[in-house]
What does this fold into?
Amino acid sequence: MVGTGDLFSQKLEDFQYVRVPEKFEFLKHENQFEVNALTAFLFEKYGFNVIYKEGVPPGLDVCDILQANVHSKSGLFRSRLFVTLEDCNGREIFTSQVGVSAEKDFRKSYHQALRDAFTSFEDLQKKRKVIVDPVSQDEELNTDSVPAEVVINPTPVTGQPAEVIIDPVVTAEENEKVSRDEVKLVNGTVTYILTSTPEGFIMHKGEGTEKFATLIKSGGGDNYLYSSKNVSGNAFFDTNGNLIVEFLDPNTQQLVNIIYKPGN
It folds into this structure.
Protein backbone atom coordinates (compact mmCIF):
# COMPACT_ATOMS: atom_id res chain seq x y z
CA MET A 1 0.00 0.00 0.00
CA VAL A 2 1.20 3.49 -0.84
CA GLY A 3 1.45 5.63 2.29
CA THR A 4 0.18 9.22 2.20
CA GLY A 5 3.58 10.59 3.06
CA ASP A 6 5.17 8.65 0.19
CA LEU A 7 2.86 9.88 -2.56
CA PHE A 8 5.18 12.50 -3.95
CA SER A 9 8.13 10.09 -4.10
CA GLN A 10 6.27 7.44 -6.08
CA LYS A 11 7.49 6.45 -9.53
CA LEU A 12 5.83 4.44 -12.26
CA GLU A 13 7.78 1.29 -11.37
CA ASP A 14 6.34 1.43 -7.83
CA PHE A 15 2.84 0.62 -9.11
CA GLN A 16 1.47 -2.71 -10.29
CA TYR A 17 -2.20 -1.86 -10.86
CA VAL A 18 -3.76 0.28 -13.58
CA ARG A 19 -7.42 1.11 -14.02
CA VAL A 20 -8.63 1.54 -17.61
CA PRO A 21 -11.99 3.34 -18.04
CA GLU A 22 -14.68 2.01 -20.36
CA LYS A 23 -14.71 5.29 -22.32
CA PHE A 24 -12.10 7.92 -23.16
CA GLU A 25 -13.11 11.56 -23.55
CA PHE A 26 -12.16 11.84 -27.23
CA LEU A 27 -14.48 8.94 -28.14
CA LYS A 28 -18.28 9.14 -28.45
CA HIS A 29 -19.11 5.68 -27.11
CA GLU A 30 -17.80 3.13 -24.62
CA ASN A 31 -14.93 1.13 -26.09
CA GLN A 32 -15.49 2.75 -29.47
CA PHE A 33 -13.25 1.20 -32.12
CA GLU A 34 -12.18 -1.20 -29.31
CA VAL A 35 -9.67 1.40 -28.12
CA ASN A 36 -10.37 0.82 -24.41
CA ALA A 37 -10.09 -2.96 -24.70
CA LEU A 38 -6.84 -2.63 -26.64
CA THR A 39 -5.51 -0.22 -24.00
CA ALA A 40 -6.26 -2.76 -21.26
CA PHE A 41 -4.58 -5.51 -23.26
CA LEU A 42 -1.47 -3.42 -23.92
CA PHE A 43 -1.07 -2.56 -20.23
CA GLU A 44 -1.26 -6.29 -19.48
CA LYS A 45 1.30 -6.91 -22.20
CA TYR A 46 3.69 -4.48 -20.55
CA GLY A 47 3.41 -6.10 -17.14
CA PHE A 48 0.61 -4.31 -15.27
CA ASN A 49 -2.36 -5.79 -13.43
CA VAL A 50 -5.31 -4.18 -15.16
CA ILE A 51 -8.69 -3.27 -13.69
CA TYR A 52 -11.15 -2.95 -16.56
CA LYS A 53 -14.91 -3.45 -16.32
CA GLU A 54 -14.58 -4.78 -12.77
CA GLY A 55 -14.30 -3.39 -9.26
CA VAL A 56 -11.18 -2.90 -7.17
CA PRO A 57 -9.93 -6.23 -5.78
CA PRO A 58 -10.62 -6.70 -2.04
CA GLY A 59 -7.83 -5.41 0.17
CA LEU A 60 -6.34 -3.15 -2.49
CA ASP A 61 -6.07 0.51 -1.56
CA VAL A 62 -7.20 3.00 -4.21
CA CYS A 63 -3.83 4.76 -3.93
CA ASP A 64 -2.14 1.58 -5.14
CA ILE A 65 -3.88 2.04 -8.49
CA LEU A 66 -2.93 4.36 -11.33
CA GLN A 67 -5.69 5.84 -13.48
CA ALA A 68 -5.04 5.41 -17.21
CA ASN A 69 -6.22 7.78 -19.89
CA VAL A 70 -5.70 8.04 -23.61
CA HIS A 71 -5.69 11.49 -25.19
CA SER A 72 -6.03 12.54 -28.80
CA LYS A 73 -4.15 15.25 -30.65
CA SER A 74 -5.42 13.98 -33.98
CA GLY A 75 -5.62 16.17 -37.05
CA LEU A 76 -7.34 15.87 -40.39
CA PHE A 77 -4.91 13.37 -41.89
CA ARG A 78 -3.22 11.71 -38.90
CA SER A 79 -4.25 10.12 -35.64
CA ARG A 80 -2.08 11.18 -32.71
CA LEU A 81 -2.65 9.45 -29.38
CA PHE A 82 -0.75 9.46 -26.10
CA VAL A 83 -1.23 7.77 -22.73
CA THR A 84 -1.14 9.28 -19.24
CA LEU A 85 -1.15 7.67 -15.80
CA GLU A 86 -2.28 9.56 -12.68
CA ASP A 87 -2.14 8.60 -9.02
CA CYS A 88 -5.07 8.80 -6.58
CA ASN A 89 -4.40 12.52 -5.98
CA GLY A 90 -4.54 13.37 -9.69
CA ARG A 91 -0.76 13.75 -9.94
CA GLU A 92 0.55 12.73 -13.34
CA ILE A 93 3.05 9.89 -12.90
CA PHE A 94 3.80 9.15 -16.55
CA THR A 95 3.13 10.47 -20.05
CA SER A 96 3.92 8.37 -23.09
CA GLN A 97 5.25 9.50 -26.42
CA VAL A 98 2.68 10.53 -29.03
CA GLY A 99 1.82 7.60 -31.27
CA VAL A 100 1.08 8.51 -34.88
CA SER A 101 -0.79 6.82 -37.71
CA ALA A 102 -1.78 8.00 -41.19
CA GLU A 103 -4.29 5.17 -41.77
CA LYS A 104 -7.61 6.47 -43.16
CA ASP A 105 -9.80 3.99 -41.29
CA PHE A 106 -10.42 5.26 -37.73
CA ARG A 107 -10.20 1.85 -36.10
CA LYS A 108 -6.96 0.93 -37.83
CA SER A 109 -5.51 4.37 -37.26
CA TYR A 110 -6.31 4.50 -33.53
CA HIS A 111 -4.99 0.98 -32.97
CA GLN A 112 -1.76 1.72 -34.80
CA ALA A 113 -1.21 5.04 -33.01
CA LEU A 114 -1.98 3.47 -29.61
CA ARG A 115 0.50 0.64 -30.14
CA ASP A 116 3.08 3.23 -31.17
CA ALA A 117 2.43 5.25 -28.00
CA PHE A 118 2.80 2.13 -25.82
CA THR A 119 6.37 1.55 -26.98
CA SER A 120 7.20 4.07 -24.25
CA PHE A 121 6.54 1.26 -21.74
CA GLU A 122 9.09 -1.16 -23.23
CA ASP A 123 11.61 -0.63 -20.43
CA LEU A 124 9.03 -1.84 -17.93
CA GLN A 125 7.94 -4.87 -19.90
CA LYS A 126 8.18 -8.13 -17.98
CA LYS A 127 9.83 -11.14 -19.49
CA ARG A 128 7.26 -13.00 -21.55
CA LYS A 129 6.27 -16.58 -21.10
CA VAL A 130 5.98 -18.53 -24.35
CA ILE A 131 4.06 -21.76 -24.72
CA VAL A 132 4.06 -24.20 -27.60
CA ASP A 133 0.47 -24.77 -28.68
CA PRO A 134 -2.95 -23.42 -27.71
CA VAL A 135 -4.66 -26.47 -29.19
CA SER A 136 -7.20 -26.80 -26.37
CA GLN A 137 -5.60 -25.30 -23.26
CA ASP A 138 -6.76 -28.50 -21.59
CA GLU A 139 -3.33 -29.93 -22.36
CA GLU A 140 -0.27 -28.72 -20.47
CA LEU A 141 3.20 -28.57 -21.96
CA ASN A 142 4.98 -31.89 -21.47
CA THR A 143 8.73 -31.22 -21.55
CA ASP A 144 9.44 -34.94 -22.04
CA SER A 145 7.86 -34.84 -25.50
CA VAL A 146 8.84 -31.37 -26.72
CA PRO A 147 9.61 -31.40 -30.47
CA ALA A 148 13.19 -30.86 -31.61
CA GLU A 149 12.77 -27.22 -32.61
CA VAL A 150 11.62 -26.21 -29.11
CA VAL A 151 14.21 -25.49 -26.43
CA ILE A 152 13.46 -25.05 -22.72
CA ASN A 153 15.79 -22.58 -21.03
CA PRO A 154 17.26 -24.61 -18.12
CA THR A 155 18.50 -21.58 -16.17
CA PRO A 156 15.66 -19.05 -15.89
CA VAL A 157 16.22 -15.80 -14.05
CA THR A 158 15.31 -16.10 -10.36
CA GLY A 159 11.61 -15.48 -9.90
CA GLN A 160 10.89 -15.83 -13.63
CA PRO A 161 9.18 -18.82 -15.27
CA ALA A 162 11.18 -21.02 -17.62
CA GLU A 163 11.02 -19.64 -21.14
CA VAL A 164 10.17 -21.70 -24.19
CA ILE A 165 12.04 -20.50 -27.26
CA ILE A 166 11.05 -21.55 -30.76
CA ASP A 167 13.89 -21.24 -33.24
CA PRO A 168 12.79 -19.23 -36.31
CA VAL A 169 14.54 -21.29 -38.99
CA VAL A 170 13.02 -19.35 -41.89
CA THR A 171 14.58 -15.98 -42.64
CA ALA A 172 12.77 -12.75 -43.38
CA GLU A 173 14.16 -12.78 -46.93
CA GLU A 174 12.71 -16.23 -47.58
CA ASN A 175 9.28 -15.07 -46.40
CA GLU A 176 9.30 -11.65 -47.98
CA LYS A 177 6.99 -12.73 -50.80
CA VAL A 178 4.75 -15.16 -48.87
CA SER A 179 1.19 -14.98 -50.20
CA ARG A 180 -1.45 -13.90 -47.70
CA ASP A 181 -4.27 -15.62 -49.70
CA GLU A 182 -3.47 -18.94 -48.04
CA VAL A 183 -0.67 -19.32 -45.52
CA LYS A 184 0.63 -22.58 -44.08
CA LEU A 185 1.95 -22.38 -40.51
CA VAL A 186 3.34 -24.94 -38.10
CA ASN A 187 3.47 -25.12 -34.32
CA GLY A 188 5.42 -28.10 -33.04
CA THR A 189 4.26 -30.99 -35.23
CA VAL A 190 0.85 -29.50 -36.04
CA THR A 191 0.09 -27.71 -39.31
CA TYR A 192 -2.37 -24.82 -39.59
CA ILE A 193 -3.79 -23.12 -42.68
CA LEU A 194 -4.69 -19.42 -42.78
CA THR A 195 -7.26 -18.54 -45.42
CA SER A 196 -7.61 -14.88 -46.34
CA THR A 197 -10.96 -13.10 -45.85
CA PRO A 198 -11.95 -9.44 -46.34
CA GLU A 199 -11.73 -8.99 -42.54
CA GLY A 200 -8.46 -10.89 -42.01
CA PHE A 201 -7.98 -14.67 -41.82
CA ILE A 202 -9.69 -17.89 -40.82
CA MET A 203 -7.37 -20.49 -39.27
CA HIS A 204 -7.92 -24.21 -39.80
CA LYS A 205 -6.05 -26.95 -38.00
CA GLY A 206 -4.43 -29.55 -40.24
CA GLU A 207 -6.54 -30.52 -43.22
CA GLY A 208 -9.79 -30.07 -41.30
CA THR A 209 -12.55 -27.82 -42.58
CA GLU A 210 -13.76 -26.77 -39.13
CA LYS A 211 -12.71 -23.26 -38.14
CA PHE A 212 -10.02 -23.26 -35.42
CA ALA A 213 -9.66 -19.48 -34.96
CA THR A 214 -10.31 -16.12 -36.59
CA LEU A 215 -7.98 -13.16 -37.06
CA ILE A 216 -9.66 -9.78 -37.59
CA LYS A 217 -7.60 -6.85 -38.88
CA SER A 218 -6.68 -4.40 -36.12
CA GLY A 219 -4.68 -1.26 -36.72
CA GLY A 220 -2.18 -1.00 -39.54
CA GLY A 221 0.14 -3.57 -41.02
CA ASP A 222 -0.18 -7.16 -39.81
CA ASN A 223 -2.00 -6.57 -36.51
CA TYR A 224 -5.07 -8.71 -35.76
CA LEU A 225 -7.60 -9.49 -33.03
CA TYR A 226 -7.30 -13.26 -32.47
CA SER A 227 -10.16 -15.44 -31.26
CA SER A 228 -10.38 -19.23 -30.85
CA LYS A 229 -12.53 -21.49 -28.69
CA ASN A 230 -10.27 -21.00 -25.66
CA VAL A 231 -8.14 -17.96 -26.41
CA SER A 232 -8.79 -14.27 -27.15
CA GLY A 233 -5.95 -11.85 -27.71
CA ASN A 234 -3.90 -10.00 -30.29
CA ALA A 235 -1.78 -11.34 -33.14
CA PHE A 236 0.78 -10.02 -35.60
CA PHE A 237 3.32 -11.23 -38.16
CA ASP A 238 6.95 -10.59 -37.20
CA THR A 239 9.81 -9.86 -39.59
CA ASN A 240 10.53 -13.58 -40.00
CA GLY A 241 6.99 -14.31 -41.14
CA ASN A 242 6.06 -15.94 -37.82
CA LEU A 243 2.53 -15.39 -36.54
CA ILE A 244 2.71 -14.30 -32.89
CA VAL A 245 -0.44 -14.65 -30.79
CA GLU A 246 -0.52 -12.80 -27.46
CA PHE A 247 -3.08 -13.34 -24.72
CA LEU A 248 -3.47 -13.17 -20.96
CA ASP A 249 -3.69 -16.60 -19.31
CA PRO A 250 -6.82 -16.38 -17.09
CA ASN A 251 -5.42 -18.93 -14.65
CA THR A 252 -1.92 -17.53 -14.08
CA GLN A 253 -2.59 -13.89 -15.11
CA GLN A 254 0.63 -14.06 -17.14
CA LEU A 255 1.07 -12.80 -20.68
CA VAL A 256 1.52 -15.72 -23.05
CA ASN A 257 2.95 -15.80 -26.56
CA ILE A 258 2.21 -18.56 -29.09
CA ILE A 259 4.49 -18.74 -32.12
CA TYR A 260 3.34 -20.21 -35.44
CA LYS A 261 6.21 -20.61 -37.91
CA PRO A 262 5.89 -20.55 -41.71
CA GLY A 263 5.42 -24.05 -43.13
CA ASN A 264 6.79 -25.49 -46.34
